[in-house]
Amino acid sequence: MTKSNDSRNRVTKRMRWIARIWSLPIIVYALIMFCGYTWSWVTTGVADPHETGDSTFIEALPPIFMFVSVLGLGIAWRWERLGGVITIIFQIAALLFILIQSPITYDFPRSAVPYLMSMIVTIPGILFLVCWRRSRTKGNP
């Protein structure tokens, strides 16, 4: 019985570290992007100087949801359940907005990038939730 629990704990620990290692470059990249846009906004008054036209608030929601999802990954380092739920919920919301704005079939190679990025951010969130669930049911085989 203890041998199966030990292997279960090792698998959970490995999954947790896979989720953390996977989420670390995502968090660092998001922080670099956030700092860059903030610096540009502070110095020039415009967050994106290369923007070619007026964009609506609806068009800005998917990147905002993506950033909140990345914040969820950071929260998941300490609170796996809360961070995983935040990540998954905001990724689903971002996917819905992306699907409404530009369906997958519209300009396929270019429109597939947001969906792939969403998968890259969602997988560690799912892993954090699985680790939380597995560590919560330690005593049950």
Keywords:
141 residues; mainly alpha; single chain
Could you describe the 3D structure shown?
The protein is mostly helical. The protein has one domain. It is 81% helix and 0% strand. The termini are close together.
Task: Give the helices and strands, then pairings.
Layout: H1 2-44, H2 57-76, H3 80-101, H4 108-136
Enumerate the spans where pLDDT stays under 50 for 5 or more consecutive residues. Answer: none
The total of helices stands at 4
Number of strands: 0
- Give the averaged pLDDT, no decimals: 84
Q: What is the domain tally?
A: 1
Secondary structure: helix percent: over 70%
Structural classification: mainly alpha
Q: Whole-number radius of gyration?
A: 18 Å
Residues in β-strands, percent = under 5%
Shape: elongated
Query: Topology as H/E string?
Result: HHHH
For the sheet with most strands, the description reads: none
- Classify the oligomer: single chain
* CA-CA gap between termini: 8 Å
Structure, briefly:
The protein is an all-alpha fold and 141 residues long. It is built from four helices and no strands.
